[in-house]
Amino acid sequence: MSAGSLLLYLIAGEPSGDLLGARLMAALKERLGDGVVFAGIGGEGMRAEGLQSLFPMTELSVMGLVEVLPRIPKILRRVGETLSDIETKRPDALITIDSWGFNGRIHTGLKKRGSSVPRIHYVAPMVWAWKSGRTKTLARVLDLLLTLLPNEPAWFEKEGLRTLHVGHPVIEGAAAKGDGAAFRLRHAIAPDRQLLCVLPGSRHSETAKLLGPFGETMALLAKRLPNLAVVVPTVETVADEVTRAVKSWPLPTIVVRGPEKYDAFAACDAALAASGTVALELAMARLPAVITYKVSPLSAFIATRFLGLSLKFVTLVNILADEAVMPELLQDDCRPDKLAQAVEHLLTDEAARALQAAGARRALEKLGLGGESPGRRAADAVIDFIRQRKEQSHG
Prior knowledge:
By secondary structure, this protein is α/β, with parallel strands linked by helices. Helix content is 47%, strand content 15%.
């Protein structure tokens, strides 16, 4: 397969998917040369690798059943625009990344239209936790599935879907390589000052629910821990609203973006974070954390009552370890008094921090594959799959 022979259409719907997409694009360019061409939808990471996004990825970054309802008409319009763009460009393959709510409609739409474009999805829905019937749905519309966790292929292979485990991106990230001393020096933070990392999410639907309680939590902590300062790593999708919100916080607060996040992890003593991929990054950085999340009461009711969502834990670190390594304060427990108490416990109890670090190590051991990075493994899987498809079509 010669360099420059491929047009690949990638779609990411949120920052974690954009990170995966950017690493995949970089690995594909490494394998195939700079001539490989990309189209699709992505964020700042994928744009940096050469993608011109069809429309802003932020339009797809929404979480919660009720929260998404007002945006359904616009999202459906974007589905139609995306399908038309794919059919016009006729790429060598479509690679969607996570965000199955949007991407599933794209794959289904292409299948209904009789498209011959090979369909690949990267990041399996958590069918082992809820909605196991989705395995049949994915098998009907996909040609290849790439998974992050080693237990996932078996769920889809039994439905006849070609599935490969490529590994979790946290393994190849820089979360464990931050320079805390340099961060404190850059921001004039004394070595003995306590520092809390606060991560209110990467979607507007998350920050809208969490920035208020987080602000009240900071007010409580300011009274109890006068030597505390705060750093808030954020992303493009929510940077403006996060920056506005923290101006009223009573603790000294710094907002950072980009790779400096990992230096912040290394500089901090504990974290308060929205549930998501960042929990794994915090585990990699050995930064003890309190995890929280909140959606509308109706979304929570529908998820548990009608969609069968019944998880012992929601944080992947806890799921992998099968124990409450990181405290989870969800929905009604996402209250300033409870959050402040849990954070204060981590900041003031060295034994609690050490216990969490040990549990996190046990969880992370289940992710390791060794050898190539997940991004390169994913790139190789995509290239091999397209090569085989082309050989079959010419045979």
